[in-house]
Amino acid sequence: AETLLEVRNLHVQFDTYDGVAEVINGVDFTLNRGETAALVGETGCGKSVTVKSIMGLLPAAEITAGEIIYKGQDLLELSDAERHARRGREISMIMQDPMTSLNPVLTVGEQMIDVLKWQGERRLSVTDWLRDKVSRRSDADHRERAIEMLADVEISAPERVFSSYPVELSGGMRQRVLIAIALLSEPNFLIADEPGTALDVTTEAKVLDLLDELVEDRNTSVLYITHDLGVAREVSEFINVMYAGEIIEQAPTAELFADPEHPYTRGLLESIPTLSSGIGGGIEGHLPDYTDPPAACRFAERCPHAESKCSEVVPYPRKTADDHTVACHLFDGEAAHDRHQKLAQE
Ligand code: SF4
Ligand code: MG
Predict the structure, then answer these.
(1) Is residue 283 within 6 Å of ligand 1 at its C-beta?
(2) Where is the ABC transporter domain (predicted)?
(3) What ipTM does this complex have?
(4) How far is the CA of 177 from the centre of ligand 2 (A)?
């Protein structure tokens, strides 16, 4: 498979009143063309900061090390203008809260036409523009295209929604509108930050199904950001599990569910609600203080398997199977048989 995005050794630090917070501590992951992958972890684990780094939404000073290579080009080396041009045309994002991501004083149609105009202008070179060789699209063309897109996201009265203000729409409708806006520019890469979490479970499932179909049809690569491993299982082919600013386990989705290794991943799996019990188990404790993180394994304070080594030696990621990587001392130089026995003994 061809690599689309490669995040290498990303480090992000924030200055806080309590000192420097190391919120991203060496994150590595890859996304292939046409692939849907997920970045999973609890609120505050650094998922959104990782996304903001990719989107160029953090002050440059906060990214202290690393590379974000998109189609062979390190995005961190681009100027703001170059990066801005790439964002939107190549990379699009669906935000987690439809109400705050839509402009309340503009109609849906006005917001969509803005996107189409901005995109059209960037596609014309100055000379073409002056010679007027390229037929500039009229507002009527834009309107038609926008309404088509609203129909594509299965909005049944696209003309009416086109003329509506966000506040006049239901939450599910607003989420569909956001998807339509994100896909208007025909991006190659889409970041979906907790899409549907603001909705009820049934509507969320419908929105995720729809998004899945749309990106499949367009061969768009997608990075889903979610705190919910159950959602990640539904929507992604590959899962990166994140804890306290580090990726602690990576595997193809089926493999991760068949053979979860890291104690944190196993805890997350137990907290997925099941039909029989209604609620899941969950993991005790909290994320560590980023201004004073544990010296070695950042999960040590919450881990039922922690040994003295865990607070002394950093557990670097190691391969336990093809495409399966885990950062935990339980997997240090052990045969697969032993580690499965160890986990089975819980
Ligand atoms: Fe637990 Fe140690 Fe593995 Fe960290 S390295 S997850 S503390 S067993
Ligand atoms: Mg978030």
Answers:
(1) no
(2) 5-269
(3) 0.93
(4) 20
